[in-house]
Amino acid sequence: MENKKYVALVTGATGGLGTHICKRLADDGYIVCANYRSQEKAEAWQQQMQQDGYTFHLYHADVSDYDDVGRMITAITQDHGPVDVLVNNAGITRDGAFKKMSKENWDAVIGTNLTSVFNCCSHVINPMLNQTYGRIINISSVNGQRAQFGQVNYAAAKAGMHGITKTLAIETASKGITVNTISPGYVATDMVMAVAPEVRNKIIEGIPVGRMGGTEEIAHLVSFLASPKSGFITGANYAINGGQHVY
Ligand code: CAA
Questions:
Q1: Which of 84, 129, 145, 196 has the fewest CB atoms within 10 Å distance of its CB?
Q2: Which CATH number covers residue 56?
Q3: Ligand 1 pocket residue status of 149, Cβ below 6 Å
Q4: How far apart are the first and last CA of the chain?
Q5: Given CA atoms 212, 214, 220, 226 in this order, what sign does their dihedral have?
Q6: Which tens digit of pLDDT belongs to each residue from 42-70?
Q7: 62 in a domain, yes or no?
Q8: Which tens digit of pLDDT belongs to each residue from 179-206?
Q9: Is there a domain that residue 100 lies in?
């Protein structure tokens, strides 16, 4: 990277993927702003990160709340300058057969996984346009591309990200901003490990590489797309799923 210290914001930073994305971006020389929702989890996480040799700047916000995100972006901008790299990583699952899916579980997943992308992009896009530089990376899922029993809400949110990525990419391409999606397959995070072992093992049997992905493998791809050298890649989706879904 050049001399400029780029500012990166990772949402849902304290989760399995978020942690490795933060670490990788710090290794790459970014000022890393780590968004979290649960204060208790964030405090334990920060301690662990310090033990691992990392100091991240923690920012609380419920990413499903437009005004809360606005407050967070204002604070980051005051502390470090405008956000150069936004990684929309925050996500939750509320799995269940559709016939039993409550409106509450639909709203929770759409709010945290999809509306959050609008909220965060909305608050960073004008500063990025003004500085004619930005990298937006949306963390979707293989299950936004293919069907997974029990994930109507999650699949809808993750598929919706592609619409945001593609359209925002062409609206901002001439201003030095790239917008891309990464669609990870099954990675050994708490979210995936929460799936019943018999269901999970069956899913893993369907991954041609023969294993789940590593969080650092996803972080490696984030690092690649975040780089100033990746300026000709925009509106793209990168599948990273061990061959589970090829198209
Ligand atoms: N395929 C077909 N039918 C199924 C099924 C499946 N996989 N699972 C359940 N069913 C059937 C049941 O037999 C049952 O049938 P009847 O109504 O005729 O009795 C019906 O569907 C309802 O079953 P359940 O009561 O067990 O359904 P549920 O509401 O409890 O949900 C589930 C089941 C928990 C969603 C389970 O299917 C499951 O765990 N699926 C995996 C979900 C998954 O992969 N989540 C990924 C989380 S990680 C992640 O999302 C990260 C990422 O990006 C990859």
A1: 196
A2: 3.40.50.720
A3: yes
A4: 34
A5: positive
A6: 999 999 999 999 999 999 999 999 999 99
A7: yes
A8: 999 999 999 999 999 999 999 999 999 9
A9: yes
